[in-house]
Amino acid sequence: MKKIKSFIFFLIFLCMFFYGEEALAKENTVSDSIFQYSLSKVAYLSNMNVATIEKNQNWVLNSFDSFRGNNLQNNFVTSETNEIQITRSIANYSKIYELSITDMNWGKIYGSTTIYRGILNGNIQLNAKFEPGNTYVVLVREFDPWGQLTGKNYPIGYFGTAQTSNPQVSKPKINEVTDKDTTIFGTATPNTTVHLTIGTDKYRGTTATDGSFSINLDHSYPAGTGLEVYTMDSTGGKSESLIGIVKGANDTIGVNPIYSSDSVITGKTIPNVLVEASIDNSKVRARIYEGTSDSQGYFSIDLNGKTYPAGTQVTITAFKSDGTNISKLVIVYPRIPSVNTVNINDTVITGSADPNAKLEVLINNIDRYRTTVDAAGNFRVVVDPLKLGDKLSIYQESNGINSDTVSIIVK
């Protein structure tokens, strides 16, 4: 019985061996493409003789980059790459491959892995960081099914590292992009190349000597389309990427800050529509005020002379012609304290702020004085005699919210 089992096992092994040889013969007829490179081919292959790369091995390289977060769809390899995945498009049942990544002198090994018979993927965990701008080689050692070295050692591909973020190349800034825009405007480091990806489309431009740039698009893009912008200088230094999204041109509400002293709300939204302000102050009912946006979308809503305390929630709603509406929730901020004139040798500072708010006076960023505004909104702070050139910084805290600071120089 044991002999029969051994004979059956031997027959299975022979089938696998000849199948492997057949698969190997087939794979030599497949495309001679070695690696799938990113859009930075110039950085990767500009100084390399691609003809020297071993052909017909059906290897594909992917990188996993901690700098950019996860699997790189564009296959970028940077100094932050921490894992390289090497894949065969066709499995080989008659060979074992030992893969290593080294420098061009084959002197330093950055990581290695083994792909066994019938396996497609090999993941190489890097034990050292790649250096930006350097070139590296992927080496293969072949073994037979019994693990014996066949004597074949050869490179299957080369790759270079792209530059990671360079602090000398500033992160670009762009204007808000809407689904109506066909041009993107922005600023970045002067005399650099701007790379824009919007959706699946890619654009390139340059910044002027003042850092400004504009990129004309083939067409507008739907709201929700993702975009990425970064710049590179002439040495390959890359900026941090700006990640954004295309917004709906008709789906925005801009509201100017509302202060506790304001009796009018202003902002910008969809042109020629009804705009409503719902003010929830009593927690029981909401007070409704209405206005209309003009042909450019600017609106002004009169609160009929009434003001609301800091922290009050205000919902602004624009009613679109299609029967839908858009809303934005904002709050009322404490007004900036009003300070009466101060002079040299004064020992009292007076003014007005929100009733019952906490007020702080800071003199020359050293001496600090605090008081509570009275119920009528007036305050009085006793200080040491003021001197010429003293800088006063005064703000209030009303309902847990700090106001903007008013700065005064004693003259």
UniProtKB/TrEMBL annotation:
InterPro entries: Big_6, Ig-like_fold. Gene3D superfamilies: Immunoglobulins (2.60.40.10). Coiled coil: none annotated. Residues 171-241, 334-410 form the Bacterial Ig domain. This is Bacterial Ig domain-containing protein. It comes from Candidatus Enterococcus palustris. The lineage of its organism: Bacteria, Bacillati, Bacillota, Bacilli, Lactobacillales.
